[in-house]
Amino acid sequence: MARILLVDDDPGLLRLLTLRLEAEGFEVLCAESGAAALGMLDAQRVDLVISDLRLGDIDGLALFDQTRARFPGVPVIIITAQGSIPEAVAATQKGVFGFLTKPVDKDELLGQIRDALSLTSLGTVEDEHWRDHLISRSEAMEQVLSRARLVAASDVSVLITGGSGSGKELLAQAIHRASERRDNPFVPINCGALPEALLESELFGHVKGAFTGALRDQLGLFRAADGGTLFLDEIGDMPLTLQVSLLRVLQERQVRPVGSTESHPVDVRVISATHRDLEHDMEEGGFRQDLFYRLNVVNLELPPLSARREDISLLATHFLHNSAKGSRGDVRAFSPDAMALLVSAPWPGNVRQLENVVQQTVALAQSRVIPESLVREALTHEADLLPSFNDARHQFERDYLVKVLKLSEGNVTQAARIAQRNRTDFYKLMQRHKLSAASFKS
Questions:
Q1: How far apart are CA 415 and CA 426, in angstroms?
Q2: 343-373 as b/e: b if 16+ CB within 10 A
Q3: Is the pTM of this model over 0.70?
């Protein structure tokens, strides 16, 4: 159900328009001032704004400017008096979706609403729940989702960046659900979870006898996702040789299974994701520049959970209810102190870490209300867990560089010789970890 925000300082007109729109199945929010409207936009998702040009505090154009800056995917329709037609035309030229004159004609109103929602992938019933699985009320996330909804209408490749556990696959699913491909498969694969030979076969397929263990033909995920969306998670971990093969498929729109001489056409929208700095990897030679530009037509960067703290209580309550369904107890809520601790925690593991903490507290809770002590214990336990492989490798690499630089007293040539790396490569490693040879000299 599309949610429409009506903004007018005339309570009578608000009531009339609300009745008309609710009769057509829309959810309606009302604000009698620009300030109230902006507060509502911050607090919850809105799919369309309909505002009077003349408001008591700010005018409709000022409201439009602020809405476009903070929520670029939300269209705005302006209602004007008869004498304000020139201003309305100017507003349309600025980017206002449309304007209506008073008295508002019902058919014209509904027509403009449908046109506006059709441009934001909300014009039909089947895709109106495209983002229901993403729980958020933060402005940072709303900006990302507004851009996601706009890009869903096209077929361009999207690169989603953000820390581990920030919800990159969920965002990719939302883009798929808001697109014209929604009725076809969404196929995810983690490019860092499989060895190179197996990843090649998984992506492109193979024919029987192509290698030991290939007992039958396999389509591969590109062909399995035909007509839909292929999500390449952790694309930065893909080996260079496979990057060449992937680039060829994206350019030619054809895939050739391992061991076959025959190519097959594929119609697939590719969304990729990574927590790595691919531009840095390109400089290091670990990621192909031509593939990067092919994948990164539109970049959507997910904010860390620490930058969207207003979402933590929503997410924690959601995870609590989900976890409590399978528990023996009757856990209902977090105590105020427990929730305050959750909101103030650093969350280096983002939403995934929050979910783990909630699941631990629900499993160990002995009352309906989870106390602060149980949350603190779970957070301490999380901090003691093993880091991810990539994080551990990064830390080992830095510790090793520090050790050889200390041994060589800042002599890079000698340190590179100890590490059995050429001097240029060693300098690049130092730059990656922001280490200076001068700080290790006696």
A1: 8
A2: eebebbbbbebbbbbbbbbbeebeeeebbbe
A3: no
DSSP per-residue string spanning 217-276:
-B--HHHHTTTSEEEEETGGGS-HHHHHHHHHHHHHSEE--BT-S--EE---EEEEEESS
Give the pair of three-digit tokens for residue 419: 């590490």
Q: What single letter denotes the amino acid at residue 204?
A: F
Q: 298, 320, 351, 361: which is closest to 155 by C-alpha?
A: 298
**Maximum C-alpha span of the chain:** 82
Q: How many CA atoms lie within 13 A of 263 on its CB side?
A: 9
Identify the H or E element spanning 119. helix 106-119
Q: How many CA atoms lie within 13 A of 171 on its CB side?
A: 32
The rounded distance, in Å, linking the Cα atoms of 266 and 255 is 7
Q: Write down the pLDDT at residue 120.
A: 57
How far CA 304 is from CA of 128, 235, 351, in Å, comes to 26, 19, 8
Cis geometry, peptide bond prior to residue 188 (ω within 30 degrees of 0): no
Distances (CA, A) of 238 to 18, 241, 252, 273, 286: 52, 8, 20, 11, 9
Report the C-alpha dihedral over residues 92, 97, 101, 107, rounded to 10 degrees: 150
CA 80 – CA 60 distance, rounded (Å): 9
Whole-angstrom distance, CA of residue 32 vs CA of residue 10 = 7
DSSP assignment of 419-435, as one string? HT--HHHHHHHHHHTT-
CB 2 within 8 A of CB 50: no
Query: Residue 240: its pLDDT value, please?
Result: 92
Please give the DSSP secondary-structure letter assigned to residue 297: S
Instruction: Give the number of residues written for the chain.
Output: 442
Q: Is 141 exposed, middle or buried (0-12, 13-18, 19+ CB in 10 A)?
A: buried
pLDDT, position 425:
87
Distance CA(297)–CA(283), nearest Å, equals 19
- Predicted local distance difference test score (pLDDT) of residue 129: 79
Strand-pair partners of 258: 206
